[in-house]
Structures are given as structure tokens and as C-alpha cells.
């Protein structure tokens, strides 16, 4: 209704303050109109002449305008940068900011084509990447909160611009918080104690809000300590009040309905909506009709007030005003865009440079790289399934072009390098016939079978591409009544493995007699129907196939590399298969077929350069041990192949750095659902084992030395650090200098090392000395003190070192840093149960009075809570524990290794004051009334025995829980 907008009202007057315009809007809207606008997709307000504008859209590494999930028609090409995990590997915030500017500008161009959406983008993802198996690792910025904060803030600043009033586009942080598991994300609870929360999980959000000034935040699907993300009161208390978020908060897509459907936390969507708004969520990213119905029901039931509704609407509409959508005369300086700003030469230049800087050289023995571009192409071989492939990812847009490594190498050499993908060509036989593709793509049994290219992606996932048509085998999923009859049909009709369910995935089940069965993405057997067509998701029996190899890809690749001077082996991932939203990896190992190809190629010809295209770490131990050179790049960039080819031939000098630890094996990783980074020894901050590649690691084609290092406090608030970097090699190169710190020994576990600052020093000439200076806030050493319940810096002598990675200190200094000393726990005050120093067999869940409750993970075993540095309370006679138990359990209190008391029972039948039971009738009545009780939180008392004296003036408490006891807090009296 853009042309029917009533722009003569105060709402459209750009000369008025935003709040005055919002006051007018909210005063004029009816309650029905307000209730209709609680979703992120809002309708036109016809009566007021205000066109609807939807909040949402993706921009992880460029604008996503594929239009395959809406009704806007064909895909609209946009600049596609490397995946965020690759952008962050540049360690170059200035360049990422330029990528953000490109993204914001192109979003403006798309908005002018579709003026009801597109200027509020759900990016970046700042979830801390504690586990490399997480399915959405590609979307994040690494495992460190400092790096994630700096790099994501740069992207945000580029996206949003620096105008004090207007936004180029509104960036939205994802996903608040502790959201690193895809399997079960819609119902699982992430257990996060105060130290992990304050020091790690919240830090990227704090930095991206306070430094990047992100306009919005999206909550997570998962629970945090028993509370669904969109109902978490920390949305209001931390994001808005503490971090100063002035924009808006939305829930993740469909999350409102999942609270009832999966979490089973509430029974009505109305309850969810009302309490989400109270928690600080302003917009529901669910079906608009479901949100409107829930909002009306919440209003009718008195679950929500008009004041609360107005606050949410004010926050969402304020963002829209900052975008300039409702200005009578266009005033937003960022709105002066043209179609030529889409995929412009400048945008392509920025993308190519970002793709170059994102490449990380992992090994380069005997200067295997760079290759000599003058060497004839026929003396080399290019092999591997990723050598001539480019795969789309879910949150990427449609790029204007893509380049594979093979194409990039041809651009440089002018001719094709001999190539083999290493993949088998197979045919499927069933009886006397074979599988072929009909004219409409459907697969059927034919006298003349088609040949299919088999790609084994590991973890049981295969794709099959018809060599004659170039189309991938897929299972049809009917999206309409007309198509529903086609659900389960097997066809070869897709250009690439790409849709939400990735129906191009198949599984091969060996039958032990030379025969196989095929199952589809959902493990439904492939059958043969009465007309000889292949189908699945039926009630029949699985067909038996004989999969015959008509061309052995391994043998062809091995034959090709024989006698070659150099072999380029390209391996890696498919972003839609190996890991994605809703799909975690179960292993960090390379797909076995790729590992086998690597070993066989090396056996034939050891002069191998491994090019790894992946969006997450792999345990490539064989490659690191045997191959002379290894180089890595994330996927997603339209210039992926060009940038890598330029790097291989020396036209680009690699200097990227890893933003995650690359572990050697799965055995070095805790359970993926374990969110305790500190106790679980996750990430470079706490992992003390041998790794394949450390955090911050990356080589260059040159060499550098560090000199003249100094580090000293300044004004008790900052640390002044300076040093010089000298290029001692013979090539112009960047160098990423990194500063780390280690805290002195303390009563609590501190990081082994932590990133304090970094800088990508550009284009250092051979022999050039480049000086770098930093002013590092001493607050970088803050930790959460569970005794004072505050963030604090502990005074002491800190080790500061500088180098090219976290594991390569070149120079160091020891600096006395002012701070505080932790005190002792005052046991006469309430001690929150989750503010422990250590634990065993404990998880956390929602408690009482705003406290978090601790309870045993396995109720058949003892759960132990440990509290150190407690002030002995020798005069105390009782200890009170605020707890709840439904089925019964016990709590033991131990002080300095001696048992001080015990309580046993449940809080359904428990009575603080023992009842007076003078006769049998009273006893029967007491038994009868307990039948109608429900378990409640209450204070239970333990009468203390002699408290052992502690010669050092402090004591250690242990609370041992048995059964289903949920403990919130305790105190002595």
C-alpha cells in the first residue's frame, strides 16, 4: 500500500524526534491493530495509512536474496563473501567493515525492489564456537570472545553505518545464548554456570552491542538452565539494561510455537507470547496468524497489559524509523543507492581481497609453495572432489558468478591443469535392468541404465549425480496438494544438493551378498513400484540393487598423478551435507573416502599440496604428518577458486589465522551437550593437550621476527604494549601480530592464555621494520568472582606475550597489574547454589525466586557441589537449604572433609514444624492431607554438629545431593 500511505501525520514527519512520532502512533492504534503487529511480519495498517514492513532477512556473508522461501520470483544475485568463519580468519576488522558496507548497500538496493522487507538483517552470528562439531560453525566468528567481538562489531558497523540518527541496515545478533548444538536444539537445556556465562557466552554479545552497536538481538531456541531462550529474563536485565540495547529483540523463527510444542514449558502460545514480552522480546518470528491469535488470547486472558504491548511495538517501530522507512521526505543518507551499486566492481574487488586474506597456510615444508606459474600445466595434476566444485550454503545468497579452484588455476596458467575428481562412476542394476532418468527426471528401471557420479561425504551420506544430465538424484517432497502425490518419487532433477531437508542425500546399506539397499534422507527405503519407477516413503519392501563401478575414481586419480612434478589435492566439505542448521557433525575426521584418496595419492606421488575447503576444523593428521604443504579456506565466496589459485601461484601472500583450535581426534572433545568450557577444558583458553593447529595459527610465505617488546600499566586502567615486527624474508607479506596474557595463580581456574589484542600489519616489505602499539584495557583480565558475584580483575603479576599465534610466544614480559583480592564467602548470607567453585554430576535448571537450581544429572549417583574460601561460622547452629524434591532424596553437608549434617526427605510431605499427632485419627489425617500436596520449594534445616576449625581461617564446603533434590541457595544461622 506504499502509494496509499497517509504521510500527512506526525508519524511521517522526519523533523520530529523518533519518540514523539512513536507516541503519536501508539496513541492512534487500536488494540486490535496493536495485537496484529506482534509478529516480525506485520500487516498494512490501512486505517492509519502505514504500510507494513517485516523485520528479518539473512546476511551472514552478504545479502541472501535467493527468494526460494518467498513469493518474490527468481533469485537476485548479490555479492557473496566467504563464510563468517572465513571472514574472521582474516583477522582484519577494517576489511570486514567494508564487507559490511557492501552488504548494507546491496540490502538497500534489494529493498527498493521489495519495499516491504529487507532492511533488518539477522546477522551476524556471535555464538561462541566451543565445539567444532557444531552444525552452524560456518556462521560464527570463532572460539574466542575477543576475536568474535572485534570482527563481528566491524561487520555490524559496516552494515549499519555511522550516522547518529539513521541506519543503513539493522544488524541483529544471533542467538542469545549458549546455542551450540543442533540436535535437540528445540527442547534441550544448556547448562551454563555464572563464570561460563559472564566470562565467555555473554562476552561476544556485550562487545557487539557496546562496541558494534547492533540494533537487534535474536534469542535462541534452546533453554538456558531450564528456561527457553525467548523467556529468559536476562534479555531485559542484561541486553537492555546492562548492555544498553536501544533497538529490539526477536525470537528465532518459529520459537514461540516450539515453547509449547517441544519444550512443553507452557501449554498455550498466549502464555509464551505474554511472558516473552515481559522478558524483553519485542517481536515473534512465527507465522503471523499464529502470533496474532496468541496475542489476542493473551489480551483476553489478562496475561499482558497494553503498556507492555506498547513497549514492544515502540522498540520494533523505532528500528523502522531509524531505517528511514516512514520518512515523508527521504532523509536517510544511506538510501541514495542505485541498481549499479549491486555487484559493482568495487564490491567484487572487496570480495576478492577478503577471500585472499581469509586463506590460512597450515604447512609449507621446504617452500613447497608458492608454485611457479611458469611451470607447464601438464607437469601438474589437480585431483579431488572439491577441485572443480562450488557448493551453496543455507544462509548465503546467489552470487553473480562463482569460481572453482580448477577455473582459478586456468585463469592464471591460461590452460587446464590435468584433472580428476577421484569419484567413482556407478550404475545401479535391479534384476536384468538398470536405473535411468526419464525425460521428466524420474528414475525408473531401463534396459539402458544411466551412469551416476558417487560422492561419499562421510557419516553415511552419499550423493549421486547423473552424468548424462548433470542432475542430482533426489527424493521429491510435495509442497502442495497437487504435488503431494509425488512425495517420495525418486528423480534426478536437482542442480545441486540444496534445500532445507537436503533430499539429495542417500544412504547405502550393504547387504552382504554383493547387493545394496538405498534409503533416502529420512532413511526410508527406496522401492520399485508397479510401473518400475523408483519410490520411497511407501509401505513396500526395499529394492535390492547391485551397484557396479564402471569407472574407478581412485584408480583414475592415481594414474593421473604418476610422474607429475606437483599434485594439488582438493578435499573438504559440502555446506549442505556435512554440517548445517539442524545437523551437527558426529566426528571431526575427514570423510573416510577422502582420507583414503589422500593416502593413495601420497603413496603414488608424495609431492602433494592439500587444499582444504571447509567451514570447520578437520583432524587432518595424515596430511600434516606426511604432505609437504597444507592450505585452508572457508567456502561461500564467489571468488573462492580465484583467491586460492592466486595464493598457490604466489600472486597472493597468505597471512590468515585460524580462529578455532584444530584438535587431533574426537577423543579430545567432551560431549557436545557439555557447555562448561572451563571445567571441560574447551578451546585454547583451557585445553591443555596436544593439538593439530593452535588458535591463531597460520604461516606466511615470508618470515618475521619480533623485537623491542614492552608492556606497562598506564593510569591503572590500561596496559600499553608496543613491539616491532621485521620482515626477514624475501617477499612482501602481511603479518598478524597477537598479544596474549596469562593471569597469576589464583584460587580459581583461569585461562592458560587469553587473547588481549591483535593487528593485521599490511604489506610489510622485505627488511622493513614495522612498529605496533596497543592500549589494552586492564578489564580484559576480568573474571567473574563467585564470592562477590561481580566481574573483577585480581591484582598480581601477569605474563604478557606477543607472537604470530597463541602457541608461539616470541617475546614476553611480566607486569604487575592492580586489582582486587577475592574475599571469603559469608555463609550468613544466601549463597546461590550455582555459584560453586567445582562440581561433579551436577546440572542447572530453573529455580525459585529467580535463583538457578542445582541438581544431580544422574539421580542414581551423588551430585557434589564444592564451595571454597568460606568464612568459618563457628557460632552457627543451623544451616538452611532452599530446595525442592518430588520423589525424595538427601542432602549431606561436609566441612573440610568432615560430615556436618544431613537432611533426608521430600518437599511434598515435608513440614518445617512437625505436626502434633496425639492420636490415631490425627496420624491418619496427616497421611491423608499429604495425598493432595504438590512438591514446593522450602527451607529445610540441618542442625550443625561441631564445625571443624580451619587453621588458615577459611573452610571448604561440600554439599552432596542424592535423588531429585533441586537446591537454590543455602545460608548458616
TrEMBL record:
Keywords: Glycosidase, Hydrolase, Signal. PANTHER family: BETA-D-XYLOSIDASE 5-RELATED (PTHR42721:SF3), SUGAR HYDROLASE-RELATED (PTHR42721). The lineage of its organism: Bacteria, Bacillati, Bacillota, Clostridia, Lachnospirales. It comes from Eisenbergiella tayi. The keyword Hydrolase applies. Pfam families: Fn3-like, Glyco_hydro_3, Glyco_hydro_3_C. The keyword Signal applies. InterPro entries: BXL (IPR044993), Fn3-like (IPR026891), GH (IPR017853), Glyco_hydro_3_C (IPR002772), Glyco_hydro_3_C_sf (IPR036881), Glyco_hydro_3_N (IPR001764), Glyco_hydro_3_N_sf (IPR036962), Ig-like_fold (IPR013783). CDD domains: beta-trefoil_FSCN_BglX-like. Its EC number is 3.2.1.37. Belongs to the glycosyl hydrolase 3 family. The gene is xyl3A_2. Residues 735-806 form the Fibronectin type III-like domain. One of its GO terms (biological process) is arabinan catabolic process. This is Xylan 1,4-beta-xylosidase. It comes from the Bacteria. SMART domains: Fn3_like. Gene3D superfamilies: 2.60.120.380, Glycoside hydrolase family 3 C-terminal domain (3.40.50.1700), Glycoside hydrolase, family 3, N-terminal domain (3.20.20.300), Immunoglobulins (2.60.40.10). GO terms for molecular function: alpha-L-arabinofuranosidase activity; xylan 1,4-beta-xylosidase activity.
Amino acid at each position: 500500500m506504499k502509494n496509499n500511505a497517509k504521510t500527512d501525520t506526525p508519524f511521517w514527519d522526519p523533523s520530529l524526534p523518533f519518540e514523539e512520532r512513536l507516541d503519536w502512533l501508539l496513541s492512534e492504534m487500536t488494540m486490535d491493530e496493536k495485537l496484529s503487529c506482534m509478529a516480525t511480519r506485520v500487516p498494512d495498517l490501512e486505517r492509519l495509512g502505514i504500510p507494513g514492513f517485516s523485520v528479518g532477512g539473512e546476511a551472514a556473508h552478504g545479502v541472501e536474496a535467493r527468494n526460494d522461501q518467498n513469493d518474490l520470483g527468481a533469485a537476485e544475485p548479490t555479492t557473496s563473501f566467504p563464510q563468517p568463519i572465513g571472514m574472521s580468519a582474516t583477522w582484519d576488522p577494517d576489511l570486514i567493515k567494508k564487507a559490511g558496507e557492501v552488504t548494507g548497500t546491496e540490502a538497500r538496493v534489494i529493498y527498493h525492489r521489495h519495499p516491504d522487507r529487507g532492511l533488518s538483517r539477522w546477522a551476524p552470528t556471535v555464538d561462541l564456537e566451543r565445539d567444532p562439531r557444531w552444525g552452524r560453525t560456518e556462521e560464527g566468528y570463532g572460539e574466542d570472545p575477543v576475536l568474535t567481538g572485534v570482527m563481528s562489531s566491524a561487520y555490524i558497523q559496516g552494515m549499519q553505518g555511522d550516522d547518529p540518527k539513521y541506519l543503513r541496515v539493522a544488524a541483529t545478533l544471533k542467538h542469545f545464548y549458549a546455542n551450540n548444538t543442533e540436535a535437540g536444539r528445540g527442547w534441550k537445556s544448556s547448562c551454563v554456570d555464572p563464570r561460563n556465562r559472564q566470562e565467555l557466552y555473554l562476552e561476544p554479545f556485550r562487545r557487539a552491542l557496546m562496541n558494534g552497536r547492533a540494533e537487534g538481538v535474536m534469542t535462541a531456541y534452546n533453554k538456558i538452565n531450564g528456561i527457553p531462550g525467548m523467556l529468559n529474563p536476562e534479555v531485559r536485565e542484561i541486553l537492555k539494561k546492562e548492555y544498553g540495547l536501544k533497538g529490539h529483540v526477536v525470537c528465532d523463527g518459529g520459537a514461540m510455537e516450539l515453547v509449547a510444542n517441544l519444550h512443553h514449558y507452557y501449554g498455550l502460545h498466549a502464555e509464551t507470547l505474554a511472558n516473552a514480552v515481559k522478558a524483553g522480546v519485542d517481536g515473534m518470528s512465527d507465522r503471523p496468524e499464529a502470533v496474532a491469535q496468541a496475542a489476542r488470547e493473551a489480551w483476553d486472558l489478562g496475561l499482558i497489559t497494553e503498556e507492555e504491548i506498547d513497549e514492544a511495538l515502540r522498540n520494533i517501530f523505532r528500528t523502522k524509523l531509524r531505517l528511514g522507512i516512514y520518512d515523508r521526505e527521504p532523509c536517510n543518507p544511506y538510501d541514495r543507492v542505485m541498481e549499479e551499486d549491486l555487484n559493482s566492481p568495487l564490491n567484487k574487488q572487496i570480495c576478492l581481497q577478503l577471500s585472499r586474506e581469509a586463506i590460512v597456510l597450515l604447512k609449507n615444508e621446504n617452500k613447497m609453495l608458492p608454485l611457479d606459474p611458469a611451470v607447464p600445466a601438464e607437469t601438474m595434476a589437480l585431483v579431488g572432489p572439491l577441485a572443480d566444485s562450488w557448493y551453496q550454503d543455507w544462509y548465503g545468497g546467489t552470487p553473480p558468478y562463482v569460481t572453482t579452484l580448477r577455473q582459478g588455476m586456468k585463469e592464471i596458467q591460461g590452460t587446464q591443469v590435468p584433472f580428476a575428481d577421484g569419484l567413482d562412476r556407478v550404475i545401479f542394476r535391479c534384476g536384468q535392468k538398470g536405473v535411468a532418468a526419464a525425460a521428466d527426471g524420474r528414475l525408473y528401471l531401463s534396459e539402458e541404465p544411466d551412469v551416476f557420479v558417487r560422492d561419499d561425504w562421510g557419516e553415511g551420506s552419499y550423493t549421486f549425480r547423473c552424468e548424462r544430465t548433470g542432475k542430482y538424484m533426489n527424493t521429491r517432497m510435495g509442497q502442495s496438494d497437487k504435488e503431494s502425490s509425488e512425495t517420495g518419487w525418486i528423480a534426478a532433477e536437482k542442480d545441486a544438493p540444496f534445500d532445507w531437508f537436503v533430499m539429495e542425500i542417500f544412504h547405502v546399506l550393504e547387504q552382504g551378498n554383493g547387493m545394496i539397499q538405498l534409503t533416502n534422507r529420512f532413511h526410508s527405503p527406496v522401492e520399485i513400484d508397479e510401473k518400475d519407477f523408483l519410490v520411497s516413503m511407501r509401505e513396500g519392501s526395499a529394492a535390492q540393487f547391485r551397484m557396479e563401478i564402471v569407472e574407478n575414481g581412485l584408480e583414475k586419480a592415481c594414474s593421473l598423478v604418476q610422474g607429475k612434478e606437483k599434485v594439488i589435492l582438493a578435499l573438504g566439505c559440502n555446506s549442505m551435507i556435512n554440517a548445517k542448521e539442524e545437523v551437527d557433525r558426529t566426528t571431526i575426521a575427514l570423510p573416510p573416502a577422502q582420507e583414503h584418496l589422500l593416502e593413495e595419492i601420497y603413496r603414488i606421488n608424495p609431492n602433494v599440496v592439500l587444499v582444504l575447503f571447509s567451514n570447520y576444523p578437520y583432524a587432518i593428521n595424515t596430511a600434516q604428518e606426511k604432505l609437504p604443504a597444507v592450505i585452508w579456506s572457508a567456502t561461500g565466496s564467489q571468488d573462492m577458486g580465484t583467491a586460492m589459485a592466486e595464493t598457490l601461484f604466489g600472486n597472493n601472500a597468505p597471512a590468515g589465522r585460524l580462529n578455532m583450535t584444530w584438535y587431533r581426534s574426537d577423543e579430545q572433545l567432551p560431549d557436545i551437550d557439555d557447555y562448561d568450557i572451563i571445567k571441560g577444558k574447551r578451546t585454547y583458553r583451557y585445553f591443555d593437550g596436544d593439538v593439530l593447529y593452535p588458535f591463531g595459527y597460520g604461516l606466511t610465505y615470508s618470515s618475521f621476527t619480533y623485537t623491542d617488546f614492552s608492556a606497562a600499566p598506564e593510569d591503572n586502567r590500561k596496559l600499553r604494549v608496543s613491539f616491532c615486527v621485521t620482515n626477514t624474508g624475501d617477499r612482501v607479506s602481511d603479518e598478524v601480530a597477537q598479544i596474549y596474557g596469562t593471569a597469576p595463580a589464583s584460587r580459581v581456574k583461569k585461562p592458560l592464555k587469553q587473547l588481549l589484542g591483535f593487528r593485521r600489519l599490511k604489506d610489510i616489505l622485505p627488511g622493513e621494520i614495522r612498529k605496533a602499539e596497543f592500549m589494552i584495557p586492564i578489564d580484559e583480565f576480568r573474571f567473574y568472582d563467585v564470592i562477590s558475584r561481580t566481574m573483577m580483575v585480581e591484582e598480581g603479576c601477569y605474563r604478557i606475550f606477543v607472537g604470530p599465534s597463541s602457541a608461539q610466544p616470541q617475546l614476553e614480559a611480566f607486569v604487575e597489574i592492580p586489582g582486587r583480592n577475592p574475599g571469603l564467602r559469608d555463609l550468613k548470607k544466601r549463597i546461590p547454589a550455582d555459584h560453586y567453585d567445582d562440581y561433579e554430576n551436577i546440572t542447572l535448571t530453573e529455580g525459585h525466586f529467580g535463583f538457578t537450581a542445582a541438581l544431580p544429572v544422574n539421580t542414581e549417583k551423588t551430585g557434589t557441589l564444592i564451595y571454597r574460601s568460606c568464612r568459618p561460622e563457628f557460632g552457627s547452629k543451623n544451616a538452611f537449604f532452599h530446595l525442592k524434591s518430588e520423589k525424595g532424596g538427601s542432602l549431606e553437608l561436609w566441612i573440610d572433609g568432615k560430615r556436618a549434617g544431613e537432611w533426608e526427605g521430600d518437599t511434598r510431605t515435608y513440614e518445617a514444624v512437625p505436626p502434633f499427632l496425639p492420636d490415631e485419627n490425627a496420624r491418619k489425617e496427616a497421611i491423608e492431607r499429604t495425598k493432595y500436596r504438590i512438591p514446593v520449594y522450602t527451607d529445610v534445616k540441618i542442625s550443625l554438629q561441631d564445625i571443624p576449625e580451619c587453621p588458615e581461617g577459611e573452610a571448604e564446603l561440600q554439599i552432596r545431593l542424592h535423588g531429585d533434590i533441586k537446591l537454590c541457595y543455602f545460608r548458616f544461622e
